[in-house]
């Protein structure tokens, strides 16, 4: 490996000479940074190099050289630190600071090349990503001076001028400043690169603390609450910053107070220890009681005078165990499709991020202030931009928008719950004014629903699963918020909630979409699985309740118009106009229109019919895939799966769908192990009862219809499903 | 002349020996429908009481009975296709069941169990 060969030596020489000419630490002046004579020109030259060499030729050579020369931590940050607040009016220094920022932004820009990576990119990307980590660590913990605040100061004059007076240069400066914060918020240590020992310095907690202490939060709040008035085009970058700060943060934990968090932590620790103990206990049951070379061997007798041999004393007492051991000793396993490694993308939001207690406190304050002032203006503005399909929006921003909305809706819910609790604890105010949901009204209007629905449908059609994941979460949170609104003590809120529910449940296309999403799960990952099962659970339950309360619920259903009718019409038309020569064109056009047209009409909503759609073999498969994670599921998630299977087996009377060997094996393992559900788990009892009932039903069915023993191997087909369940054919009303 | 003769006989030509790979055993329709496959299960179904054959204990012993049933399936699958683990084998079998012919046969098997089948 030769360092000189990674980059063209001449380029390296040019860049290095510029970095050297920029300045350096002076031994005479106690090691402080002294600028070179032509520092500003050097900075501008470096910028030109980045632009005209790297960007133009689509290489990363200059960025690599600058990383090796330690430009950011060695020069740019000291220069910025030297621009102290009392030299605010020093124009030369201000210009220098701006020039530094102009370099910092491209140097910290996230590297995401979807396609079209050249050899160069492959060579430099890991090195530069490591350099990013050092840049971020340097920026957040730069000893004496606060770099972030300095950068806010660069932007302040431009922000202070009113929107109409801003020049394009002002707009550019604001943009640069925001992009820098965005870049800083994105940088994380990469899971597949060696750690540099800076993980704590650049963690999410450290970022949040620095953002708070150095007034970036204040800036963000100001911009959000004035979005649409003083600020216009910056909404997307602000969204990105906020998205990167909150993604993966557990909302419920964030809104716990100190005491609860302590309790939570101890219970978590207790849970984990309990789990470990249970694991040991499970193992102790089958662990050998004698040394490893004791050499027991047993025969398992099978039919037709066949035997299989297994070794190990643990097999002596337990027949089931020996069967499992036989299975385990097989070497071949079915080749599995690997998912693409999406999880390391910077737009991923399914990975939970832990926060320190201090950082949670700070972030919570920010979130509460944001909800109070910035939520409505920012999201209204963004939603309008999305409707217009504004140029500044990238595809990824839509996903960020929906995820952020869902996160903040959940935050608002948690905050309310917390306030309620505090109020109850204090018992001071008995008659308080219930707060209205006006704070989050911006996302509870018809326009948002239309946007959301359209986005869900397109991402489902285009198989953009992460996008769909974000919009499902958003829809779930909207449903939950509306549900809470309906229980509010304010009459106005109840009325609004009723209206919203009416609108949500009015369109049959929404119902069908949710059913289809649940059915369509294949291998989109656990986050997606969690989101789609949660959505269908919440949707189904709310719809059930709503249709009970409003017995005369009408829905608009769209059906393909009957073809026959159209054909008749067109032939009639054709007979009338047969004389015309151009007629053919007209007719085919008519036909096209007729085919494309869909009849929409209203009909009474029938919940049982809808629920029947939900309980199909493919949705059972989805829930089975979900339940297979039972060891890691929370109480709520286990409950969700439990309710679904309960509905299938006992409400819809389709337990036949569950009579499949793999499902029965999963259920059995869940209760009886090995590696079953922990007995102290709150859901253990309910699951135990459910599985027992399902098994009972199954043996009864096997007795009645022995054919089932074959059919248990397969997913059931529609033709035989009804017979298997009821023992007779479905009575169909013949229409004569 | 000599040359032609040898050519005709093909004595000078080198004989290439291509080693053929052993065909990989597959769990396909044919295997599933062979004697140790579904017919064996059907024989069990027709034999009257599954419960007595598998020595199931009935009411109150759901879990131990389920373990026996699962064990039966496991040994059945191991006999049919020894290569695959239980869970993998079940997936393979399930997939074979999606074929058009299999679906028709499955329907027929069930129809045979219906009351009045064969008489009307």
What does the model show?
The complex is a heterodimer of chains A (736) and B (120). Chain A is mainly α and 736 residues long. Helix content of chain A is 64%, strand content 4%. In chain A, the strands form three sheets. Chain A has a two-stranded antiparallel ribbon. Chain A has a two-stranded antiparallel sheet with strand order 3-4. A two-stranded antiparallel sheet of chain A has the order 5-6. In chain A, helix 19 (465-486) runs parallel beside helix 22 (526-549). In chain A, 34% of the residues are buried. Residues 575-582 of chain A have low confidence and may be disordered. Chain B is mostly helical and 120 residues long. In chain B, 58% of the residues lie in helices and 0% in strands. Chain B has seven helices and no strands. Chain B has helices at 2-9, 29-33, 38-46, 50-53, 62-80, 86-96, 100-113. Chain B is elongated, with a radius of gyration of 25 Å. The termini of chain B are far apart. The model of chain B has no long low-confidence stretch (mean pLDDT 81). At the A-B interface, helix 15, helix 28, helix 29, helix 30 and helix 31 of A face helix 3, helix 5, helix 6 and helix 7 of B.
Summarize, please:
The complex is a heterodimer of chains A (736) and B (120). Chain A contains 31 helices and six strands. Chain A has helices spanning 3-6, 9-22, 39-57, 61-68, 71-82, 91-108, 119-140, 147-160, 168-186, 204-213, 216-225, 235-246, 251-254, 258-286, 319-328, 357-388, 395-426, 446-461, 465-486, 491-506, 508-519, 526-549, 563-576, 583-596, 607-614, 617-627, 635-651, 661-672, 684-704, 708-711, 718-726; strands at residues 23-25, 33-35, 297-301, 307-311, 554-560, 598-604.
Biggest interface reads: A-B, 44 and 47 residues
Mean pLDDT score of chain B, rounded?
81
Q: Which regions of chain A have little confidence, pLDDT < 50, spanning 5+ residues?
A: 575-582
* Radius of gyration of chain B, CA atoms, in whole angstroms: 25 Å
Distance between the termini of chain B: 80 Å
Poorly predicted sequence stretches spanning 5 or more consecutive residues of chain B: none
Rg of chain A: 32 Å
**In this structure, how is the largest beta sheet of chain A organized?**
2 strands, antiparallel
The secondary structure category of chain B is mainly alpha
Strand content of chain B: under 5%
Largest sheet of chain B: none
State the separation between the terminal residues of chain A, measured CA to CA. Answer: 86 Å
